[in-house]
Amino acid sequence: MSTVSQIMTKGPKTVGPGVSIVSAAKTMRTARVGSLLVKKGKKLVGIVTDTDIVRRAISTNKNLTKLTVEKIMTTPICTIEWNRPVDDAQDMMGDLGVRHLGVTKGGEIIGVISVRDLLLFYKRYAQSKISPEMTYSEPKISQD
């Protein structure tokens, strides 16, 4: 079975806790990611996700240029060990109600796994089980 480290995003992007929501959103867009780890000095103190931005910032009508990541981030970061099976990540996300997990090795976060990573993994798995005689098509959707 595949492990979390095989499908995670390596080298997760980080921001400081004092970064504005607008700046964090721009960083996510540029990096094409749905989460940023929040780093204070050398310590990871939380995670901010696109969902956090929508639910805890935009929907509250607060000034997004003045509101900082620290005010809406999720802390502590939910984590899973790098060598755990992918199914464990799916179960953990479902049980905790989160869409992103930090991936740890030796107590240090080395990557992030998202619901999108799981979807791509299971899509490839399903496609590998389809016989060559069967046709499979999918809509072509681009990502912003």
Explained architecture:
The protein is built from six helices and seven strands. It has a single domain, classed as CBS-domain. The strands form two sheets. A four-stranded mixed β-sheet has the order 1-7-6-5. Strands 2-3-4 form a three-stranded mixed β-sheet. The longest helix is centred in the last third of the chain and has 15 residues. Helix content is 37%, strand content 23%.
Write the layout of secondary structure elements.
Layout: H1 4-7, E1 9-10, E2 14-15, H2 21-31, E3 35-40, E4 43-49, H3 50-57, H4 69-72, E5 79-81, H5 86-96, E6 100-105, E7 108-114, H6 115-129
Parallel strand pairs: 2-3, 5-6
Antiparallel strand pairs: 1-7, 3-4, 6-7
Summarize the structure.
The protein has about 140 residues and is of the alpha/beta class.
Tally of DSSP helical segments: 6
Count every beta strand, where a strand is a DSSP E run of 2 or more residues: 7
Indicate the proportion of strand residues.
15-25%
H/E element order: HEEHEEHHEHEEH
CATH topology: CBS-domain
CATH architecture: Roll
Give the N-terminus to C-terminus distance in angstroms.
32 Å
Task: Give average pLDDT, whole number.
Answer: 91
CATH superfamily: CBS-domain
- Protein structure class: alpha/beta
What is the global morphology?
A: globular
Largest sheet: 4 strands, mixed
